[in-house]
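Fold it.
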Amino acid sequence: MERSGKYIQNSEIAISEEVQIMKTPSWLRRKFIYLASYIKKHPQEFVLQLLTFALLCLWIYVGSKKVFTYTEFRASMIRQPFEDQYGVMLSYLLPAVELALGVLFIFEGTKRFGFWLTLLLMLVFSGYVILALRDTWGGIPCDCILEFPISWKAHLWVNGLITIGCIVGLLLDRKIRISHQRKLMMRLGS
């Protein structure tokens, strides 16, 4: 092969450099092609991995933000419409639980438990937001939504979307597990 300007001479045939690059895919292009073929072959597993990654990021972000702004978070917990001692206890407990939930999504064996705990927490948080929106305590407890600067109604919608994501994740996880078990049983039976 000899180079002549922007063309490469190969066995008496001139091939453009751009065509040569397209014939030999780069590492990133090969990875993209592999990812696209994986998504096409296993769409349910891809959606499950996407949900898992999103919840992992959510819980790590929310828990670490509470840790890094602890004094502000603790003050907002004390302003809630329950006893101050519960607010102090929750100011320690919530960041620890949220960070632990994030860690559950890292490992394959604990992912399902993470989905269940997230579902439970979202139902509890949504119940609290509904009580606040219904003026159970004579008004909104505080304007202290630390994680996301959104209204209480919007927070309820976000909780609903996360709840739906958890349900979808649990259903996909069950379906994929059953499918893998059937394949394993077929291999062992053969």
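The first strand starts at residue 2 and ends at 4.
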